[in-house]
Amino acid sequence: MGKLTKKDIKHVAKLSNLKLSSHEISAFEKELSNVISYIKNLKEVDTSGVEPTSQTTGLTNVLRKDEIREDDMLSVDEAISGTDKTHNNLFKVSLVLKEKYFNSKRK
Length: 107
Description:
Layout lengths: L5 H10 L6 H22 L32 H4 L6 E2 L2 E2 L7 H8 L1
Antiparallel strand pairs: 1-2
Helix pairs in contact: 1-2
């Protein structure tokens, strides 16, 4: 595949949820065809001695041990102290899902 058609560009635009004008379709037809041709050139490069890699910096993720630190935790009383809308030491909030939703899901 070297040269893309207008049909190809329209298909890619549809998959990408892009609305392109006829001028943009013509422009992308040429540009993306050039990209495809360039990729064909890369396939001709001998990479048999090259080991696959996902990154080249040697950096790794630095993670800390997940520890519970009692001195950084709020007690239940401290956590709910900013509201008077509680029930059984939990925050009481307005209904998020309506009963109509639950009834329709049960059918």
